[in-house]
Amino acid sequence: MKLEGISKIAVLGAGVMGHGIAQIAAQAGISVVIRDVEQSFLDNAKTGIEKNLARLVERGRLKQEDVPTIMGRIDMTLSLPDAVKDVDVVIEAVPERMEVKHSVWGEVSKNARPDAILATNTSSLSITEMSTVVSDPGRFIGMHFFNPPTILKLVEIIPGNKTRPETIAMIKSLAERLGKIPVIVSRDAPGFIVNRVLITYLNESAKLLNSGYTKEQVDAAMQYKAGMPMGPFMLADLIGLDITYNILRVFEENLGAGYKAAEPIRRLFEERKLGRKTGEGFYVYGKPEVKEEQAAGFDPSTLLRPFIAEAERLVSEGIADPGSIDLAVKLGANLPMGPFELKARLAAGVVEEKPIVPETRNGVLKITINRPSKLNSITTEMLNTIADIVEKTDTDKAIRCIVITGAGDRAFSAGADIDEFSKLTPAQALDYTRAGKKAMKKIKAAKKPVVAAINGFALGGGCELASWCDIRVTSDKAKLGQPEANLGVIPGWGGTKVLAKLIGKQRAKLLIMTGETVTAEEARQMGLVDRVYPSAEYGAKVDEFVAKLAVASPTVISAVKRLTNPDVKEEDLEAESEEFSKLFETKDFREGVSAFKEKRKPAFTGE
Fold first, then answer.
1. Active-site residue numbers?
2. Please, which of 176, 363, 437, 493 could form a disulfide with 550 given CB 3.0 to 4.6 Å?
């Protein structure tokens, strides 16, 4: 069978994973039949898919007219034989118990076509053991999606001991067709790559509670000092302590007593306090959060070292190479760095993340906005740091070009830090917007060419920062916009003025009033960005482009900047600052901020 021959798949299990896999397959043009044991499960799956598609339409990522076509590719049934009888691939996503998996796959083997590929979405169970109940283990394979499968890009592909190479190649190609990034695990082993590293890290974290540390202290340190999107205890609650506990049981049975679930995890599991799904785990839900000052007294390397050590074990056991492990952990766990990248940082004596990271190489100063856990949102202090670095560079003849970019691959910068500016009084807001403009003007005044390398979202203050740079180059996955209107405010760092200079008053007015985001190509067509590169080639293309600027004549660059940079008048910028600060007195602003934090649409009244 060739990839082009895959026209229909069956998904066994209609839960969050199952119906998510079915949705992305249908979006990729593949017919899907979903099977489960109760009609209510299928009804919930249909509702879930419809909600997901509606959300994509609302965010401009899908056209409304495409929704009926996608839904038309999805059938549902309670009959397993009917589900699998004429499909090319069967993907199973049933509960993580080997006896359940064996029961399902034994029935599939009797009813599916003999050439159909059989793929399990298990997160930790043995592919080889599971395949013993099917007639041809050579067509059986692990295809581990990550939750939610509609968003997370990673798929771990795990061969069993008898899986044929052509089966691996076919499932790898299918994953790519579904818009995923496949990582092939070299051999079948408990937890594969991501869960082996991540769940062990969570277990080591829980052990620390018996050593005098608090969950808030550890979470705050790992989030604010180590740059993790969230601390390990909040992450365990998000994953689910039942899932965490059961994976650790598999580890203990197959890898030894060192992987036994820590007492706090075991206790919460037995008390059925399973995290967010039950309203209580390590934290009680609502909206628990930790503050930076709570991190005092905890060294992040205490947890980073066992995190790295587990990855090194995977290499020594022949499960994966360092590059695959780093890629899988970043994509599957949504972390800014993989364990071997962290190892290099620790070896260099760098433990704590800094929000702004300058690095000089080959005549180019690269300034990285380094808050990936907050989509690289910017505080005024960070903006001042960027501006000061740029200003000091003017006297350094060895530096010929400056690049500003964001850490990770999700965002250049998603804007100003809402926690900072949402608490401002109108008077403080006036000082805030003036300080931001002062920093932006330093960037504009730089004698060296300043390039915004936009690798993801550039929204609000992030879009403003990019707009003040000389040149903007993007990945084709980038999104740009000024969505401040959704918060009940306007751009406050010169966005209303510099954007109008770049793309014209009418287009600027439309973007700011609607708060809409545009794709990289749409931004290029309207003059907001200068180059759009395919995401697979983005880094190399940016380096190539910047290298040309680095060898250009500095006197020519300086002259061209003086003659062509947008002339934004001081009185216009001050007028924007005054309007910005006035909006902090309105009910619409308070409603906009509340709606943002509660992840809902604002209900503005004009007050």
1. 464, 484
2. 363
Opening angle at CA 412, ends 409 and 418, nearest 5 = 115
Burial of residue 355 (CB within 10 Å: 0-12, 13-18, 19+) is: buried
> Where do the domains of the chain lie?
3-184, 194-347, 356-537+562-598
Tens digits of residue pLDDT in 211-265: 889 999 999 999 888 888 889 999 999 999 999 999 999 999 999 999 999 999 9
- Picking from 570, 587, 557, the residue whose alpha carbon sits closest to that of residue 471 is 557
* pLDDT tens digits, 180-210: 999 999 999 999 999 999 999 999 999 999 8
Q: What is the pLDDT of residue 243?
A: 92
Sheet holding 531-533, edge to edge: 356-361, 364-369, 401-406, 450-454, 471-475, 531-533
Residue 586 has pLDDT above 70, yes or no: yes
Joined together, the tokens standing for residue 453 give: 């390398």
Residue among 313, 210, 146 nearest 218 (CA)? 210
d(CA 49, CA 61): 15
- Rounded to whole angstroms, the Cα distance separating 194 from 247 reads 12
DSSP string, 134-201: SS-GGGEEEEEE-SSTTT--EEEEEE-TT--HHHHHHHHHHHHHTT-EEEE-SS--TTTTHHHHHHHH
- How far from 326 is each of 8, 228, 333, CA to CA, in Å? 33, 14, 10
Cβ(439)–Cβ(384) below 8 Å: yes
Residue 351: the pLDDT is 66
Contact 185, 156 (CB under 8 A): yes
Closest CA to 479 of 130, 60, 179, 119: 60
CATH 3.90.226.10 is right for the domain spanning 356-537+562-598: yes
As a residue count, the chain comes to 607
Q: Kind of pairing, strands 8-12 and 89-92?
A: parallel
Give the number of other CB atoms < 10 A from CB of residue 448.
23
- Rounded to whole angstroms, the Cα distance separating 335 from 533 reads 24
Tell me the sheet residues that pair with 141: 119, 159
Q: What is the pLDDT of residue 60?
A: 73
Higher-confidence residue of 267 and 354: namely 267
CATH class of 194-347: mainly alpha
* Side chain identity, residue 480: L
Tell me if 513 sits within 8 A of 456, measured CB to CB: no
How many C-beta atoms surround the C-beta of residue 79 within 10 A? 11
Mapping DSSP onto H, E and C, the string for 58-69 reads HCCCCCHHHHHH
Mean pLDDT of 147-161: 93
Instruction: State whether residue 308 is helix, strand or coil.
Output: helix
**CATH, domain 3-184, list 3.40.50.720, 3.30.2350.10, 3.40.50.150, 3.10.180.10:** 3.40.50.720
514-530 residue pLDDT tens: 998 999 999 999 999 99
